[in-house]
Amino acid sequence: MAFGGPLRISTPSDTEILTERDFAAPRDLVFACYTQPPLIKRWLTGPPGWTMPVCVFEARAGGRYRYEWHKGDERLAMSGVIHTITMPEHIRSEEGFDQPDTGGMSQSLVDFEEKPEGTTVINRLTYASKALRDQIAATGMADGMEMSFKNLDALLVERKR
């Protein structure tokens, strides 16, 4: 069996969502795709038809990031601040969507684990309450994330050549 997707998702506590995804690429390359705006814009687009015209990622402690997705008249946007970044291993940040029904800010811990076959990305999202965690988990986030991760798989193959 080849190393790689699909996304694994669990709820290890009342306020957390844990996602894990394997990528058949070196950790430095996966980390670059998470932290360099020209690369982020190529894979973090979600379902077909969505684009990311705004992508900012300041890869430093205290740096900010902002993603805006568009599909016709629909808009979705997220912003965050990076508290800790250790290249190419770890990013700790606080983030939230502009849309009020997404419940405010959450904490994000992203670890990039190097393995002989590639890289495992582990993202621990922590919300203010169980109700909020359950609301976010029910949005279909796993499907949207996996669509983007398939884009990342293709980008990683292209960049490894």
Automatic annotation (TrEMBL):
Source superkingdom: Bacteria
One Pfam family here: AHSA1
Domain Activator of Hsp90 ATPase homologue 1/2-like C-terminal: 25-156
Family: Belongs to the AHA1 family.
InterPro entries: ASHA1/2-like_C, START-like_dom_sf
Species, as recorded: Devosia yakushimensis
Stated name of the protein: ATPase
